[in-house]
Amino acid sequence: MEAMHQGEVVQRAKEVFMSGRSRPLHFRLKQLQALQKMLKEREDEILAALKQDIHRSQYDSALLEMIGIDNEIRLAMDKLEEWTSPRPVEKNLLTVSDQAYIHLEPLGLVLIIGAWNYPWALTLIPLVGAIAAGNAAVVKPSEISACSSLLLQTLLPLYLDKEMYPVVTGGVSESQELLQQRFDHIFYTGSSRVGKVVMQAAARHLTPVTLELGGKSPCFIHNKCHLRVACRRITWGKFVNCGQTCIAPDYILCEPHLQTPVVECIRQTLLEFYGPDPKSSPDYGRLVNQEHYTRVLGLMEGYAPVLGGQTDASECYIAPTVLKDVPPHSRLMQEEIFGPLLPIVTVSGVEEAISFINEREKPLALYIFSSDKKTIKKMIEETTSGGVTVNDVMMHYTLNSLPFGGVGQSGMGSYHGRHTFDRLSHHRACLVRSLAMESINLSRYPPQDSQRASRARLALKSPLIDLSKKTYVWAVSATILAVGLLVTLLVILLIAAGLNCTCWYWRGFYN
Ligand code: NAD
Question: Do 108 and 81 share a structural domain?
Answer without folding.
Answer: yes
